[in-house]
Amino acid sequence: MAAGSVAGLAVAFHWFGWTSIPGNACGDHYGPCPDGTVPTILLAFLCTFAGMGLVTWRVVELTRVRSGKALPAVLVVTGMLLALWPGWRAYAWMRGPVLDRVWQAPLDRPNTVKGVGNWVLDGAVVRARTDGLTSFDLADGRERWNVDAPVRGSACAMSDTVPDGVGVIAFGREAGPCDTVWGIDTASGRKLWERKTTGVAAFGPTDGRVTADSGVAVALEAAAVQGFALRTGVPRWKVDLGEGCSPVVASAAAGRTRVVNQCVSGSAFRSLELVTFDTANGTHVRRTALPAESDAETVMVISARPFALWLKEKDKRGTDAVLAFDDQDRLRGTVKTSGRAEDLHLTTYPEHGFDARPSLRAAVVGDVLVTAVTKPGEAVPAAVSGYALDGGRRLWHTGAGGPVTALTRLPENRLAVLADGRIRSLDPHTGHLAEGPLIREGLDEVADASQLVPGRDGDWVLVNPEGTGVMPPLLGVGR
Q: How buried is 190 (Cβ within 10 angstroms: 0-12 exposed, 13-18 middle, 19+ buried)?
């Protein structure tokens, strides 16, 4: 039976090794091979030649002492069968954990729509498209509810949180302002209220045109900021920002609303400041000058609390950094997006990402900014670094093993990093990147700008901006 066992291991290793290759191709320009694929195939050939020699030798020896071939055949087959389970266990140990496609959502229709942002809930994810919102169950991808956008309106802004189960979303017409604001019950999809505002003109992909906190929905207008009751939409307060001034982005947390306000005199830049209000009643709290001397090109909130803001001026010699503030809006630290050692990649590719609520490749955990980075001369981030919000110094740098696709928050102050098809847990304080499962099936259906969402029982969901072609809107992977 020993000779049959070696032959059985050969069969097992051939089967498990060759079938483990996703799409019959991996490595180089294809997706990554699961760990253990090459050793398994090498062992398969080794056991093949060893098994052939051992089986031949044992059959000859047995026929010398006992005529007939029935007994040798039975012993060989028995040995082969007994070796299948050990072969599977050995392969599973060499391969490590993998994730395969469990479900996928139907392709978006019509083919003119695009995903613009997501709300992650307990057991569901709400994906906003240009033409409305759809809630998907994280367990099986089934559609829970669907809400259409206003006629000829496209979703252009989403709140970064859904306090008390209410999400705030804004719509605008082609080449028009983001001026129609809705409050949505994310459990049922029921539209709780609708308000028409003067809106704010498009300012590139950002999630700061509407926000919500402390029972109040906050919406930016052309030259003002307005607060509405979160569940009823009743106007609570309105603050004019002054002549020549207009809000750029807003963020609300812990009872405070912070608005980046840009002022001009005619067409000339005048100032860029951070204005803080009491979210409950709109009372002015303080104004803080931002380090800018030219118009803002990019303004994006990286974290609401502690408050961290990415500011990039149009002036190439101007500020291009993440600014961290304390609760009194005092500047704690500055992290430049481009330095001697590396460049920060805070967002995914703007032309392929979510426009109303971009998916970030950066997160703030405690007092640490974690972000995808590239070395000088590289275009695709293949590492992550941690920076202290106090002072802005780099704390650690960790290679991710391949292109960083997504980064998301996990419980207990940890992060999940999707890089080179593998999902790993990251300690934001030390930069230690634990081993994690490889997406073996479905990796070619994950966009470069996808959002990674924890599913149920160790499963994961990937949400793609584009869902009308090869890539599904949502892909669920699990063991």
A: exposed
